[in-house]
Amino acid sequence: MSTFDKEKIKKILEPIVSKTYEAQLTESDISKKNTLDIFSASIDSAIRGIPLEEWKEQEKQRQMQKTLQNQIGEIHQRILGTLDGVTNLETGSVIDLEGDGFIAEIKNKHNTTKGNHKVAVYDDLKSELVKREKGTIAYYVEILPKNGKSYDQEFTPSDNRTRTNRESDPYIRQIDGQSFYTKITGNENALRELYLLIPEIINEIINEKYGKEQNVDDYIDESEFDLIYKKKL
């Protein structure tokens, strides 16, 4: 039995897949959409030895990928919110998720949040903890961990203004994505299961909406997954 509700995830992914898929089919001039840095474009295309028009097309693809990457943290938040006992608190809330005995802030990558922004996350988590029952744990979740390490440790970010770290608190924790998915689902392979499921769902959406069939195996590399989530502290 799957850890995840496929239809719920499909509803989350459908508008994102459609927008991204259709964007790549349309002609767009990045010079009009954004002020093109013609000096950077000229220098980069010359160094790489490609015509400027080819550079523009590659830059269009890069910008589309960047836009998608910026949504991955929210996608994880919404998918986690489909699990039994977990509530997605949506945009505008101080924190992202709450469930039985925990609250959480979700970030896609370990370096997504910089400097004093991590201090702000800590302060938000701490302020929310006082509203919860004693024993509730607040998690700062980094889906993609640094150096492939697995961790569940006290979250003590450094405050650049005071040059001190936030105080240690066993109920305010920093955790990698795989460990968090395991805690929430009770399935140590939950994140791997999701990784394998998403391309399957995307292919269904593309086939149903655009009549194009694709090979799921072309979009999965389990060896890369293992490189990202292999190390234990």
Overview of this structure, please?
By secondary structure, the protein is α/β, with parallel strands linked by helices. Helices cover 49% and strands 16% of the residues. The chain has nine helices and ten strands. The strands form three sheets. The protein has a six-stranded mixed beta sheet with strand order 1-2-3-4-9-6, sandwiched between helices. Helix 1 packs across helix 8 and helix 3 packs across helix 4 (52-69). The longest helix is centred in the C-terminal third of the chain and has 21 residues, at 190-210.
The mean pLDDT is 90
What is the strand arrangement across the widest sheet?
A: 1-2-3-4-9-6
What is the number of strand segments?
Answer: 10
Terminal CA distance reads 31 Å
Q: Approximately how much helix is present in the residues?
A: 40-55%
Per the principal axes of the C-alpha atoms, what is the gross shape? globular
Cα-based radius of gyration, to the nearest Å: 20 Å
Estimated structural class: alpha/beta
The percentage of residues in β strands lies in 15-25%
How many helical elements? 9
Low-confidence segments: none
Order of helices and strands: HHHHHEEEHEEEEEEHHHE
What can be said about the biggest beta sheet?
A: 6 strands, mixed
